[in-house]
Design brief:
336 residues, mainly alpha, two-stranded antiparallel ribbon, 2 strands, globular, metal-binding, transmembrane helix
Length: 336
């Protein structure tokens, strides 16, 4: 019997069933805590963060202008925008999410450096903060301690959580997490130290200046297309994992939890829409049982393994998946 199967047999039978990850194949801190109870009484008042509201509004207006500029852009600039989108997305999915939040595989120093730079291009908080909030999301999913609790509605889970002050429970639980693995990673802490500078250079200047310098694109098109529009699309693709993938889709692995299998989100977020699977088995490096299908991030990690830049990918056996589907799934589809 494999190590994973042994841990699955001794997993918690809580409503979230995240105990299947357990300590040996998980960060520990991303396993659902069914002992948490929301405080009784009225909820704390929502405090708007007007700076974020204004900046997000301006960003989306700029992205709309970028859409208008597409017909005036060269094909090379459009292609460069796609490249920047993919690099940014991988910095979140293969980097902050699968590597640093869940430790689902190991990456060499060169790969970790690339993913940290790509993460700065994505501009979604530094790796340390992103991974901390994501572990809190898994540990206290769909409760007051979840940073983007989908029980508060689509808008809140998608973008609203960034426009208001965090619930006190989110802050409290985040402070109690063991983040020693992140603190021990020199790449993570170096990115955190120089995060603002890296964002200015990688999220805005590089996307804008490369097409201007190499093939004479205007700075305006460079700023609004591979810059603001690309950045906004990556943001919303990531946010759809928190919102749409927690609301719409089937639940073949665990019908007792909200996260769903959502093909559209899988496509837009380069593989992160197999969300019922991911919350059931958060330690699996592929976040899906279907390999590279609609999962560019898994294909990227597999390629890095082939090149010797990544290793020790954690994966759930098909026998464990089938057993879990029969035990807690909604019967909506067959295993791959």
């Amino acid at each position: 019997m494999t190590e994973t199967e042994t841990m699955i047999q001794h997993a918690s039978s809580s409503r979230q069933q995240s105990g299947d990850a357990m300590t040996a194949t998980s960060t520990v801190e991303d396993v659902f805590d069914d002992t948490y109870r929301e405080k009784e009484g009225p909820k704390p008042p929502r405090r708007l963060v007007w700076r974020n509201i204004i900046l997000m509004s301006l960003l989306h207006i700029g992205a709309l202008y970028g859409l208008i500029l597409i017909p005036t852009a060269s094909l090379l600039t459009v292609a460069w925008s796609v490249v920047c989108f993919l690099i940014s997305a991988l910095g979140v999915t293969a980097g902050a999410h699968r590597l640093w939040s869940h430790r689902s595989y190991k990456a060499s120093f060169p790969l970790r450096t690339f993913l940290a730079l790509a993460n700065s291009m994505a501009f979604q908080n530094d790796i340390y903060e992103w991974a901390r909030d994501h572990r809190v999301h898994h540990k206290y999913s769909e409760t007051d301690a979840d940073p983007h609790n989908a029980m508060r509605g689509f808008f809140f889970a998608h973008i609203g959580w960034l426009l208001v002050r965090k619930h006190p429970d989110v802050i409290e639980k985040g402070r109690k997490l063991d983040l020693s693995d992140l603190k021990a990673d020199t790449v993570v802490m170096l990115q955190r130290r120089y995060y603002k500078l890296s964002v200015v250079v990688l999220c805005f200047l590089v996307p804008m200046l490369v097409p201007w310098y190499l093939w004479g694109e205007s700075l305006v098109v460079g700023y609004f297309l591979p810059g603001l529009l690309r950045y906004t699309l990556v943001l919303n693709a990531t946010w759809l994992v928190n919102s749409a993938a927690h609301m719409w889709g089937n639940r073949p692995y665990d019908k007792t939890i909200n996260p769903r299998e959502n093909p559209f989100v899988s496509f837009s977020a380069v593989g992160e829409g197999f969300h019922n699977y991911h919350h059931t088995f958060p330690f699996d490096y592929a976040t899906s049982e279907f390999g590279c299908r609609l999962n560019l991030t898994t294909a990227f990690i597999d390629t890095m393994c082939f090149l010797g830049l990544a290793s020790d990918c954690k994966k759930v056996s098909r026998e464990v998946i089938l057993a879990r589907m029969q035990r807690t799934g909604d019967g909506s589809n067959k295993s791959g």
